[in-house]
Design goal:
This protein is an alpha/beta fold. The strands form three sheets. The protein has a six-stranded parallel β-sheet with strand order 3-2-1-4-5-6, sandwiched between helices. A three-stranded antiparallel β-sheet has the order 7-8-9, with helices on one face. It is 40% helix and 11% strand. α2 (73-83) packs across α8 (224-244) and α7 (194-200) crosses α9 (254-261). It is built from 20 helices and eleven strands. It is elongated. The structure holds coenzyme A (COA). Coenzyme A binds at residues 71-74, 91-93, 127-130, 151-153, 156, 159-160, 179-181, 191-193, 223. Residues 71-74, 91-93, 127-130, 151-153, 156, 159-160, 179-181, 191-193, 223 line the site of coenzyme A.
């Protein structure tokens, strides 16, 4: 063999061995992965956790929220995110705090229920955002956090110098989420509270009785409803950021939020062009429709007629009522129950369309039966027959309802200055993200902790911050807030 040939065959043997090694190496990997190849595509997700349900952390663990919210709409949103495990750092004005701390106070000197019930599971830091040192702290928080949530009046954030451009430059990953009263348009500069939104979002004009004025509802669909929409937007933006790497603005206008919740009424507005709204009681009563959706009293909003009916004790108890739905599939059971078996075959009553002009008489007859029973008796009897009914529960009854306590929907928490109070826990239940409701923070309770442990200020820097007045209130403001 020539030298050349020997070299060649040596090289060949080497490369063969190397190839073998590669095959070996390669074969090691597929061997390990072989069973995985048969698994469904994982989309890059980690292997399913083997930890017991509820012990794999919380849904939003690791998400940091810079919470600049106040009053109700914004705090509702950030409380939900906190319930889901996000670290929510609430920034409040030194000495004053969120205005609701002192609104509708029931216990002298203690944070109001208005505040405590909307700010659980959060940390509070006081910063004067208009103080140069305060702005410096805020800049650090902006770099540290994932989401800034605010519901100031239009332009207030910009006036603090925290424009979108500024924040985005400082932290391109930051999501800036805002509640405003109105979206871009003629009213965008307006300050808005709950009832303004209910009126501008189409709820008030469609709530109440035809012969009465527009009504606002007790449910805070403008504030809490919009907070809920904002939370949804934030979670979506966090998810999108996983792909894009960048934050974005999330805007929820209260008018839009209310309209979204009142969308069935916009549905009815369009149906009006094609004839009367047959499920509205005014149709059965022969009262003509105008060109806008009327108020429908307690008529059911869907295709199954329903009404609120008196129950035993209604003369003295303002909540002794039941919502009764004459759902078509259980019509025969209803007829038997109220002692009108003949209505099952009577052509005037047997079919839903035939019943429409007679709804007033039908519900009056059903009411004669419900008035002989308590709302809970009606509930028991009807549910056994699959008839959909709902007792009108007072807030007292809800507060005392054991099943709501058991599920964590109504929770009792202890507070250092006001004592025990009830709050609404997380209405969303998830077995792998179990909510533990914690009391709301005192004003500035976590200022030192956040400055030192989160933002890493040294003792000397902390002392300088304290003496600068950026985190403490002038005496006048303290006195006004007390
Ligand atoms: N340090 C210094 N200043 C602070 C501060 C802090 N930590 N936190 C707030 N402020 C200032 C703001 O910069 C603003 O000052 P400016 O007007 O000079 O710019 C001021 O406090 C008041 O803020 P604003 O939002 O205007 O409060 P308001 O009490 O006048 O109005 C609302 C309240 C709710 C009507 C208004 O915030 C609003 O319309 N928000 C949007 C819609 C909304 O969420 N409404 C429902 C509320 S439940």
């Amino acid at each position: 063999m020539t030298n050349k040939k020997a070299k060649k065959s040596k090289a060949k043997a080497k490369s063969k061995a190397a190839a073998k090694r590669v095959v070996k190496l390669k074969s090691k990997k597929p061997a390990a992965r072989k069973p995985a190849a048969k698994k469904p595509v994982s989309n890059g997700l980690p292997r399913p956790s083997s930890k017991p349900w509820g012990q794999a952390g919380k849904a939003l663990d690791g998400v940091r929220i810079l919470d600049f919210t106040h009053v109700q709409s914004g705090p509702t949103c950030t409380q939900l995110l906190a319930y889901m495990g996000a670290d929510v750092i609430k920034v409040e004005r030194p000495g004053v705090g969120d205005i609701t701390r002192g609104q509708l106070r029931d216990v002298k000197g203690a944070d109001s229920l208005y505040f405590t019930m909307l700010n659980g599971n959060k940390r509070s830091i006081t910063i004067d955002s208009k103080h140069p040192k305060g702005r410096e702290i805020l800049d650090r928080l902006i770099k540290y956090c994932d989401v800034l949530v605010e519901n100031f009046a239009p332009g207030a954030l910009d006036r603090m110098g925290l424009t979108w451009e500024y924040i985005h430059k400082l932290n391109p990953r930051m999501i800036v989420a805002s509640v405003k009263g109105f979206g871009p348009g003629p009213y965008e500069e307006c300050k808005v509270y709950e009832n303004v939104a209910q009126c501008a979002g189409g709820s008030a004009s469609t709530t109440g009785f035809r012969e009465g004025p527009p009504l606002v509802t007790g449910a805070q669909i403008g504030d809490s409803g919009t907070g809920l929409h904002l939370a949804f937007g934030i979670v979506c933006a966090l998810h999108q950021r996983l792909r894009t790497g960048r934050g974005q603005k999330v805007l929820t206008a209260m008018q839009d939020g209310v309209l979204n919740l009142a969308r069935v009424k916009l549905r009815d507005q369009q149906r009006l062009a094609h004839g009367p709204l047959t499920e509205y009681s005014q149709y059965g009563e022969g009262i003509p429709f105008g060109d806008a959706v009327p108020r429908a009293g307690n008529d059911s909003g869907g295709g199954q007629p329903g009404r609120i009916l008196k129950c035993k004790g209604w003369e003295t108890d303002p909540d002794a009522y039941i919502y009764f739905i004459t759902q078509a599939p259980v019509w025969e059971a209803i007829c038997d129950l109220i002692g009108k078996p003949e209505w099952k075959t009577d052509p005037d009553y047997a079919k839903p369309f035939a019943r429409l002009p007679r709804l007033k008489q039908i519900f009056t007859t059903i009411e004669q039966w419900t008035m002989t029973k308590t709302k809970f008796e009606v509930m028991d009897i009807c549910n056994k027959l699959d008839i959909p009914v709902g007792p009108i529960l007072s807030m007292k009854e809800i507060a005392e309802e054991p099943s709501l306590r058991k599920t964590g929907t109504v929770v009792e928490v202890d507070h250092p200055t006001r004592g025990k109070y009830l709050t609404v826990g997380n209405p969303v239940k998830m077995p792998d993200s179990v909510t533990e409701v914690k009391r709301s923070p005192l004003l500035g309770e976590h200022t030192v902790e956040i400055l030192s442990k989160v933002l890493g200020y040294s003792a000397a820097e902390m002392a300088a911050i304290k003496s600068s007045g950026a985190i403490t209130a002038p005496e006048k403001a303290k006195a006004e807030a007390a």
